[in-house]
Amino acid sequence: MSSVDMETIVSLCKRRGFIFQSSEIYGGAGGCWDYGPLGAELKRNVKEAWWKAMVHDRDDVVGLDASILMNPQVWVASGHVQQFSDPLVDCKACKSRFRADHLKGDKCPDCGGELTEPRMFNLMFKTFMGPVEDDAAVVYLRPETAQGIFVNFQNVMSTSRKKLPLGIAQVGKSFRNEINTGNFIFRSREFEQMEMEYFVKPGTDDHWFQHWLEQRFNWYVKLGIKKENLRLRPHAKEELAHYAKGCYDVEYLFPMGWSELEGIANRGSYDLEQHSKFSGKDLSVFEEETKERFVPYVIEPSAGVDRSVLAFLLDSYHEEVVEKEKRVVLRLHPALAPIKVAVLPLSRNEKLVPLATEVHASIRGCFMTQYDDSQSIGRRYRRQDEVGTPYCVTVDFQSIEDKQVTIRDRDSLHQIRIPIDTLRATLLAKLGGEDFDVLPPGGSLVTGGKSQLG
Ligand code: GAP
Question: pTM for this one?
Fold first, then answer.
């Protein structure tokens, strides 16, 4: 299990500006969370690492960004209007609400009171499109991003000039009116998903299902999650969603126990068949080589952004004693770290400031940096360790003389001193050396490039 409890992570997240309760000054909004400056960076990095692995690094997957509000018929066809419901019970005494399938006994777990009979509660949020608030204007906030992909299948097939197998990937917000939220950002009412629908010829689906199980498990490991904290769990028949032919969860050993990070399902041809039926449009494909026409099967890896963020935070958290003091360090993979490099002048001495500012300017366009000159250097190192900054660059008085700076490694605490004019290339090599892009779009890996310091 991750060595840290949830309270410690929640408190670190609030204290250091990763994650706040939504609308906190008004007492919060149930099951909604806001990502602060460092959390917004971390979350973006998680989504970018996923997009890179799923779209940019492959020839057989393309991206999509569909709208959240869709024609309500989509949700009739998908089965969500009929079946996307949880059994809800109320306590007659204290009025608390629970998911009946999450309860162990038949009494209220809060007060021991009597519970109502379960009734089905649809998890989709409803709103109205246009000025008239009547039944004809009801639309839903999407409870998954997947349907935006299915309804665009033909558009993408015909415009991308790709053949099967073809994946369509999408990252975006989803909304579920969960009866019980909890465990911090693990279960919320507004969250983000990273979903990919991989369309294949029927009969090849088992092969691709295995392929995606491996790919997705390894993605977490490659980004630093310890293998012993991850597992693949097959769904029992009665657990399968209404559309699924088979499903595995990638589970992480969260402080509350093994819980789902991502679901990988074989959805068969369910969704395309349903949309064909309800829209009246033919969603089959014609395979030129075999002259066969068929409705593709779909393998779907569906991951939660927020749950991934939580797992990366928990798994990277370490406490250790260094020089008789507790050191908290997030050993985040450099691709995920919110700040890649901190530039720390030894002090605010006016002789140091121009050089330190120049050093900062020479690297800030390459990756996310922070300039910090407040408090002692020891405290600043600790602050950067606690938010997972892989490298600190220290500018001291000697730097003015010898044009060199010190790079400190977050994990080993090892320090090297290098010429300022090699700093940018050295950091780029260190940060980009593991097959992860830390460059902004259009950035280039300049090795040996001259810094502004000459
Ligand atoms: N399209 C398939 C689908 O949506 P799901 O298992 O319901 O499948 C996929 O959701 C992933 O979305 C989950 O593994 C989880 O990471 C994330 N997720 C689902 N409900 C969530 C919630 N209420 N809060 C945070 N993440 C959630």
Answer: 0.93
